[in-house]
């Protein structure tokens, strides 16, 4: 196993330590230790189309909206979210929440988190935690099996993203 890697989202204050990666587990699991400071900000509602995700609270409290129902997960408790179930989480505080998050199979969700945190650190996320549409189109297609926002419907997103990817590539070439 390689040394554990830590990434930090300066926008939200969230910190992730990659405890087990796809490389460590032959693609079976991504396990992250996540530290989430208190915040009223909620991540965008999303699904993991081909992954089960779970969060086990080690300390603090995490609120989850799972398929429209609020579930509060306290230290010692765990929530398991099947594939394709809409959800998001946040920490209402007052303490930092520490969780173990697992994604099975791992797919490429690790790279998604690294890209997303990098965008946050570059100031490229809006008030809803979303990158600009041209970047979203690239990430959306690249990680379509890992994670998708729930609105608009996926068929609309995929159509739009497919149209926009060439535009992003052309714009990147003209900037060089």
Walk me through the structure.
This protein has 176 residues and is of the alpha+beta class. Helix content is 26%, strand content 32%. It is built from 3 helices and 11 strands; from the N terminus they run E-E-E-E-E-E-E-E-E-E-H-H-E-H. The chain has helices at residues 109-121, 133-142, 154-175, and strands at residues 5-8, 15-20, 30-36, 46-47, 52-59, 61-66, 69-74, 78-81, 87-90, 97-104, 148-149. The strands form 3 sheets. A 6-stranded antiparallel β-sheet has the order 1-2-3-10-5-8, with helices on one face. The protein has a 3-stranded antiparallel β-sheet with strand order 7-6-9, with no helix packed on it. A two-stranded antiparallel sheet has the order 4-11. Strand 1 and strand 2 form a beta hairpin. The longest helix has 22 residues, at 154-175. The chain is globular. 22% of the residues are buried.
Q: Report the count of strand segments.
A: 11
The figure for the number of domains is: 1
Strand order, largest beta sheet? 1-2-3-10-5-8
What is the fourth-level CATH superfamily?
Answer: Jelly Rolls
- In the CATH hierarchy, the architecture is Sandwich
- Uncertain stretches of 5 or more adjacent residues: none
Quick structural overview:
The chain is an alpha+beta fold and 176 residues long. The chain has helices spanning 109-121, 133-142, 154-175, and strands at residues 5-8, 15-20, 30-36, 46-47, 52-59, 61-66, 69-74, 78-81, 87-90, 97-104, 148-149.
Keywords summarizing the entry:
alpha+beta; 3 helices; 3-stranded antiparallel β-sheet; 26% helix; 6-stranded antiparallel β-sheet; 176 residues; globular
């Amino acid at each position: 196993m390689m040394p554990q890697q830590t990434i930090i989202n300066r926008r939200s204050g969230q910190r992730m330590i990659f405890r087990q990666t796809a490389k460590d587990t032959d693609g079976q699991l991504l396990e992250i230790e996540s530290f989430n400071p208190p915040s009223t900000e909620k991540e965008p509602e999303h699904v993991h189309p081909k992954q089960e995700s779970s969060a086990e609270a080690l300390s603090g409290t995490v609120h989850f909206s799972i398929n429209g129902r609020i579930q509060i997960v306290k230290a010692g408790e765990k929530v398991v979210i099947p594939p394709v179930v809409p959800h998001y989480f946040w920490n209402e505080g007052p303490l930092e929440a520490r969780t173990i998050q697992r994604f099975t199979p791992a797919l490429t969700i690790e790279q998604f988190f690294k890209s997303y945190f990098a965008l946050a650190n570059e100031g490229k996320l809006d008030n809803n935690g979303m990158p600009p549409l041209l970047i979203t189109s690239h990430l959306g297609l690249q990680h379509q099996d890992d994670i998708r926002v729930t609105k608009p419907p996926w068929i609309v997103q995929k159509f739009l993203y497919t149209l926009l990817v060439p535009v992003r590539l052309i714009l990147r070439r003209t900037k060089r």
